[in-house]
UniProtKB/TrEMBL annotation:
Belongs to the D-isomer specific 2-hydroxyacid dehydrogenase family. PANTHER family: 2-HYDROXYACID DEHYDROGENASE HOMOLOG 1-RELATED (PTHR43026:SF1). Keywords: NAD, Oxidoreductase. This is D-lactate dehydrogenase. The keyword NAD applies. Residues 109-295 form the D-isomer specific 2-hydroxyacid dehydrogenase NAD-binding domain.
């Protein structure tokens, strides 16, 4: 079994070496993104694995099929970088990675607390020896209503985590999770917008929820609401968020992901001129905590993602049941 692995990062190399021996798989590795220009590197391989940096369109999927490759995995939870509909039409099996939800859930709660206690402002002041308290008065989570949109594994774990603070928790999901009802109350989405002091997003990006946080939905929210996004950047309309921050409709945002992050996240751009205007503008707000899409980045999770990304291909190639496949039956 031979697998072409694109987008290989330094921290993945040790895991891949271990899997090569453990699973008796031959890996052909490249640090390059998966592109039309280098798709030929996969010639002679049985499957391809990528990361979220690579964009896979219908033509690339067609080329893979012509090369005899029908199994593709992404070593990430998100898979909106792959044209899933085209994959299903072409007959390509696509799978993603999984990890335990604690890493992103913990990070989400951290962002909530940083916003409530104005940590960014405090840290910036301390760097210039300003230890005053002016403007740093925060709020306690126990007195707030927290709205969680998306109650899958990560959203549910966030709910469990914040339940210990004594806050009121409300939630929305098209597909209700019975276990959530021990900690939170399901409400309609508009009700969640209207009642929540903090709104946190926890769902994959789809055509249906693209820019679900926009000028119209923000208008339905409480004045001074805090927004947290550790899910997918495209869930939020950056321009609408900027406008709401300027008008103080939104009093702060914790963003581990943003729609303009392609080509920037996980890269040292140094002194390069950055043409991501909304990204640059958002991160300069004193009440916006902006991080480099690394809520997932723990020792435990990174190994799990590589392992899942490879195991899913092995399952597919062997004709076994593949719990990681995201395409419908081809």
């Amino acid at each position: 079994m031979k697998i072409m692995v694109y987008d290989v990062l330094d921290y993945e190399k040790t895991v891949l070496k271990k899997l090569e021996q453990e699973l008796e798989i031959e890996f052909c590795c490249s640090t390059e993104n998966f592109l039309p220009e280098n798709i030929a590197l996969a010639a002679g391989c049985d499957a391809v694995s990528i990361m979220g940096y690579s964009r896979v369109d219908a033509q690339m999927l067609k080329t893979l099929k012509e090369m005899g490759i029908v199994h593709l995995s992404t070593r990430t939870v998100g898979f909106d970088n792959i044209d899933i509909k085209a994959a299903e039409k072409t007959g390509i099996h696509v799978s993603n990675a999984r990890y335990m939800p604690a890493n992103v859930a913990d990070f989400t709660v951290m962002l909530m607390l940083m916003l409530l206690r104005k940590v960014k402002i405090s840290v910036c002041r301390s760097l210039v020896n300003d230890f005053s308290l002016d403007g740093l008065k925060g709020r306690e989570m126990r007195s707030l209503t927290i709205g969680i949109i998306g109650t899958g594994k990560i959203g549910f774990t966030v709910i469990q985590n914040i339940s210990g603070f004594g806050c009121k928790i409300i939630a929305f999901d098209k597909y209700k999770n019975k276990a959530v009802e021990e900690y939170a109350t399901y409400v309609e989405l508009d009700e969640l917008y209207a009642q929540s002091d903090i709104i946190s997003l926890h769902m994959p990006l789809t055509d249906d929820n693209y820019h679900m946080i926009n000028k119209d939905t923000i208008a339905k929210m409480k004045d001074g609401v805090l927004l947290v996004n550790t899910a997918r950047g495209g869930l939020m309309d950056s321009e609408a968020l900027i406008h709401a921050l300027e008008k103080e409709k939104v009093s702060g945002a914790g963003l581990d992901t943003i729609e303009e992050e392609d080509g920037v996240m996980h890269v040292d751009i140094g002194a390069q001129i950055l043409d991501k205007r909304s990204l640059l503008y958002l991160k300069q707000f004193p009440n916006v905590v902006f991080t480099q899409h690394y809520a997932f980045f723990t020792e435990e999770a990174t190994e799990s993602m590589v392992r899942c990304g490879i195991l899913s291909l092995k399952y597919g190639l062997e004709g076994a049941e593949n719990p990681y496949e995201v395409t419908r039956s081809n």
